Amino acid sequence: MIVTDPISDMLTRIRNATMMQHGSVNIPTSKTKVEIAKILKEEGFIRSYTLDQKQDVQALIRIQLHYHPDGESAINGLKRISKPGLRVYVGKDKIPRYFGGQAIPIISTSQGILTGNRAKRQGIGGEVLCYVW
To answer: Which pTM does this prediction carry?
Structure first.
């Protein structure tokens, strides 16, 4: 199956899995998706992720979703910002805040994929991929 926006596909798979309260979700892998999963783990939105490399098929990222003791997901929302038809770039002084700073922006920079706070500390801007809250 051809996917025109792989990052949006990843976010949709995670959103659907959390709505159905699945324990994990499998996503076709890419370097960008692995970096996004790494940020989600560092920020506490997912429990863990592993790479499943099997021969003759595309590798998968298995994301273990994180739930609070009351059964509520750690991820309340995901929003794709920059899309293939409309790229959204920000400078180092214009890194956005969403939901009063409760959501974290994930930004693709020249130094790799970073959270908005890290990009601001390093003084670099880039393409705003998505918000997670």
So the answer is: 0.91
Q: At what angle do helices 31-42 and 6-19 cross, to 10 degrees?
A: 40
**Spatial separation of the C-alpha atoms in residues 30 and 34, rounded to whole Å:** 6
Q: Where are the domains of the chain?
A: 6-65, 78-132
Q: Which two tokens stand for residue 115?
A: 């959270």
Assigned CATH for 78-132: 3.30.1490.10
Q: Which residues contact 125 (CB under 8 A, 6 or more apart)?
A: 89, 90, 91, 92, 93, 94, 95, 107, 109, 119
The answer to whether the CB of 126 falls within 8 A of the CB of 90 is yes
Tens of pLDDT, residues 28-49: 999 999 999 999 999 999 999 9
Architecture of domain 6-65: 2-Layer Sandwich (3.30)
- Alpha carbon distance 70, 58 (integer Å): 36
Residue percentage of the chain with pLDDT more than 70: 98
Give 67's DSSP letter. B
